[in-house]
Amino acid sequence: MLTYNDTEEKAVEKIIASLADNIQLETVQPASTPVLSFPGLEIRQHQRRVLQDGKDINLTRLEYSTLVLLASNPGIVLTRTQIFEAVWNMDSDSCQSSISTVICNLRKKIEPDSKNPTYIKTVLGVGYKFDMRNAGE
């Protein structure tokens, strides 16, 4: 596992932000599928419910929206900026810590082991992706 301190993280985020201006990113939207089902995890969008092994998981609005966005785009790496703009519905240059906090809280609630996530993977220096290949293993 690779870790870095706050100063290093801010430097990496500045580099990524400057690179993002030169990279064309896909526009992502939540899928219209009413139920997203993965091993051990079910998202019932028409009821705004998340079930882990059949048990309801209580999520905040931001956690739920972030999960739906990621799960609706499995395998696609989404930048923190893309997640922020889609979930918060606004532009921001300082979204990095907000996204990290929501992802951390979400992992604590839905991952069997939040320190070794199976659903929400970090793509170092880029963002996050929902990995359905390893989900439930």
Automatic annotation (TrEMBL):
GO term, biological process aspect, one: phosphorelay signal transduction system
Keyword DNA-binding attributed: yes
InterPro entries: OmpR/PhoB-type_DNA-bd, Sig_transdc_resp-reg_C-effctor, WH-like_DNA-bd_sf
Record-annotated DNA-binding residue ranges: 33-132
Positions of the OmpR/PhoB-type domain: 33-132
UniProt-recorded Gene Ontology molecular function terms: DNA binding
Keyword set, alphabetical order: DNA-binding, Phosphoprotein, Two-component regulatory system
The protein, known as: DNA-binding response regulator
Organism: Parablautia intestinalis
The organism's taxonomic lineage, starting at the top: Bacteria, Bacillati, Bacillota, Clostridia, Lachnospirales
